[in-house]
Amino acid sequence: MRNGRYSVPVAAGSYTLYFFPGPGVPFVGEWWDDQASFEAADPVDATSSVSGIDAELAPGVLISGRVTSSGGGLPLQGATVHLYDGSSPCWVFLDNRGTAVDGDGGESIEVLKLIASGG
Question: What is the residue range of 92's domain?
Answer without folding.
Answer: 13-112
